[in-house]
Design brief:
The complex is a heterodimer of chains A (about 400) and B (about 140). Chain A is α+β, with helices and mostly antiparallel strands and about 400 residues long. Chain A has one domain: Peroxisomal Thiolase, Chain A, domain 1 (3-Layer(aba) Sandwich). In chain A, about 30% of the residues lie in helices and about 20% in strands. Chain A contains 13 helices and 13 strands. In chain A, the strands form two sheets. In chain A, strands 1, 2, 3, 4, 5, 9, 10, 11, 12 and 13 form a ten-stranded mixed sheet that branches. In chain A, strands 7-8 form a two-stranded antiparallel sheet. In chain A, a hairpin with a 7-residue loop joins strand 12 and strand 13. The two termini of chain A are about 20 Å apart. Chain B is mostly beta strands and about 140 residues long. Chain B folds into two domains: about 50 residues, no CATH class; about 80 residues, Beta Barrel (OB fold (Dihydrolipoamide Acetyltransferase, E2P)). In chain B, strands 7-6-5-8-9 form a five-stranded antiparallel sheet, with helices on one face. A three-stranded antiparallel sheet of chain B has the order 3-2-4, covered by helices on one side. The longest helix of chain B is centred in the N-terminal third of the chain and has 8 residues. The chains are: A alpha+beta (about 400), B mainly beta (about 140). Chains A and B meet through strand 6, helix 4, helix 5 and strand 7 of A and strand 1, strand 5, strand 6, strand 7 and strand 9 of B. Strand 6 of chain A pairs parallel with strand 1 of chain B, so a sheet runs across the interface. Chain A: One of its GO terms (biological process) is isoprenoid biosynthetic process. Chain A: GO terms for molecular function: acyltransferase activity, transferring groups other than amino-acyl groups. Chain A: Pfam families: Thiolase_C_1, Thiolase_N. Chain A: It comes from Halococcus morrhuae DSM 1307. Chain A: This is Acetyl-CoA acetyltransferase.
């Protein structure tokens, strides 16, 4: 089925991004409001005209409360995607587009604010005495944190395809090199070599410190409206050319607790089905993509995501990254061009959506020439995974 | 506070309506897997409905308590102060014998965590955490 919408991203909003704990003067909730106001302001849309709020799992900042805080006169669409962590970032934009296309709402904002310094850090346990339901089978047996949960498929992936540790390292180096070109990135001033990567402390095998995303404080948002409205607004409109969300059987809690996905799917990112629909509904193939943002909570998942999206055969995604192959505007396929979760900031990957849109506008710190199709893949390893293809309207 | 016992380091399993028979079998040192009473399909973790035939009738099948390491990680960092004296530790996914593809999340003990390998044969060993709770760990067989 073709993606039957010409809704566009017309506004991009961000706060500054800082290391977790450094945001001490404003609450996470305030940052959510600020990013949404920035997106409306960037779009040239009166904040009171925003009538829809779209988010995804693990959001503390409810759209209904954000709307009240911002003095929105009438909310017409309010929605949150299920699933863990950053998997639904692109799905939140997809849902915003569907709300606009259906006429349910006119200006829908998709957003994420995350201040790990003000709440629990995701790499740390919360000191609970009991684990309930499905989580008991993981947490009570030592599998408590995301780096462990995502280490398990990576270890199996490396075993099945004989993937060297350096392939993970090149994913980290790629994000870092792009952050070094991005003055807004948390790691803007810190370069990284393969030697430094290999010497970084082990976290949970095969992951070292630099395989793991940052822990950050910040917020970002995008504003979605119809193509008709977009044509009258000041910014170059970014068309949502294709959008898809979902996953295969057994991936509901996926790597976050069950680990009983079909064996043939296990060392993957659960993105292949979504990727197939994303390309098919746009009439495109992986070769058509000019630049890609692939969610990097952990480096190993980027390799599996790249393969699920058809950018490389199984077990060979490392070749996309070695020798600086994915670094810079002239790369065959530049990947994670703002520094992403690993080196720009970890805002549950929503900053990757913002960067994918910037690439279409022509305003990325690592701007690729003449971008026709810009792809973003949100979080891996659970359902729903989600992705977008963006292009100039 | 640094933990020394499992109770102090990891959260204990709360026995829910769907999951209690698994944990109660553990208390008896029996490893069971949920089985559809109609079509016989095994499933884990426990759920109220069979994803193969949609039956809500549930049985529990005994499994041998042996298997092989499907994948694993050695955790070096402390996820809380309670973990500080426990690192490094192993977390493994064990592919259970007597099933086609059922995997159990567990920890492999009685071996240096750095020596655990994919494909290694293992057998269940029970840790009685307290009088209400027993968890299935594994060791090389």
């Amino acid at each position: 089925m073709p993606w039957n919408s010409d809704a566009c991203i017309v506004g991009l909003g961000e706060t500054e991004y800082v290391k977790q704990g450094e945001m001490t003067d404003r609450s996470e909730f305030e940052l959510a409001c600020e990013a949404i106001e920035n997106a409306a302001g960037d779009a040239g849309v009166d904040i009171e005209d925003v009538d829809g709020f779209s988010s995804y799992a693990n959001d503390r900042n409810k759209g209904s409360l954000v709307a009240d805080a911002l003095g929105i006169p009438e909310v017409k669409f309010s929605n949150k995607v299920w699933g863990g962590g950053g998997c639904g970032g692109s799905a939140a934009v997809m849902n915003a587009a569907m709300a606009v296309e259906s006429g349910a709402a006119e200006y829908v904002v998709a957003y994420r604010a995350l201040c790990q310094g003000q709440f629990g850090r995701r790499g740390q346990t919360q000191g609970i005495d009991y684990a309930e339901g499905t989580d008991a089978f993981a947490h009570s047996l030592g599998l408590e944190t995301p780096p462990q949960m995502y280490a398990l498929p990576a270890q199996r992936y490396m075993h099945e395809y004989d993937v060297p540790q350096e392939h993970l390292g090149h994913v980290a180096l790629t994000s870092r090199a792009h952050a070094n070109r991005n003055p807004r990135a948390v790691m803007s001033d810190r370069e990284m070599t393969m030697e430094e990567y290999m010497d970084s402390p082990p976290i949970t095998d095969p992951y070292k410190l630099y395989d793991c995303c940052l822990e950050s404080d910040g917020a970002c948002a995008v504003l979605v409206t119809s193509a008709e409205n977009a044509a009258d607004l000041p910014q170059p409109a970014v068309e949502i050319t294709s959008a898809a969300q979902g996953g295969g059987p057994g991936w509901g809690s996926g790597v976050l607790s069950s680990h009983n996905m079909p064996l043939e799917d296990y060392p993957t990112s659960n993105a292949a089905r979504v990727a197939d629909r994303l390309f098919e509904s746009a009439g495109l193939t992986p070769d058509d993509i000019d630049v890609a943002q692939l969610y990097e909570n952990f480096t190993g998942m980027v390799l599996m995501t790249a393969e699920d999206y058809g950018f490389a055969p199984r077990g060979e995604a490392g070749e996309l990254f070695v020798d600086g192959n994915a670094i810079g505007p002239d790369a065959d396929l530049p990947i994670n061009t703002s520094g992403g979760n690993l080196s720009e900031a970890y805002i549950h990957g929503f900053n990757l959506v913002v960067e994918a849109a910037r690439q279409v506008r022509g305003t990325s710190p690592t701007q690729v020439d003449d971008v026709e199709y810009s792809l973003v893949a949100s979080g891996p390893g659970v359902t729903p995974h989600s992705g977008l293809i963006l292009s100039p309207a | 506070m640094r933990g020394t016992t499992r109770e102090e380091i990891f959260p204990l399993p709360e026995k829910g309506i769907d999951t209690a028979p698994f944990w109660e079998a553990c208390n008896r040192h029996e490893l069971v897997v949920q089985q559809c009473a109609d079509c016989g399909a095994l499933r884990h973790p426990p759920t109220p409905v069979c994803p193969d035939c949609r039956s809500y009738e549930v049985d529990w099948a005994d499994v041998p308590g042996t298997g092989e390491i499907y994948t694993y990680t050695t955790t070096h960092y402390a996820a809380s102060p309670a973990h500080e004296d426990h690192t490094p530790y192993n977390v493994s996914i064990v592919l259970l014998d007597g099933t086609e593809d059922i995997r159990l999340i567990t920890q492999v003990v009685d071996i240096d965590p750095e020596s655990v390998e994919i494909g290694m044969p293992v057998e269940v060993v029970w840790e009685d955490v307290n009088e209400d709770t027993t968890v299935p760990l594994f060791r090389p067989s």
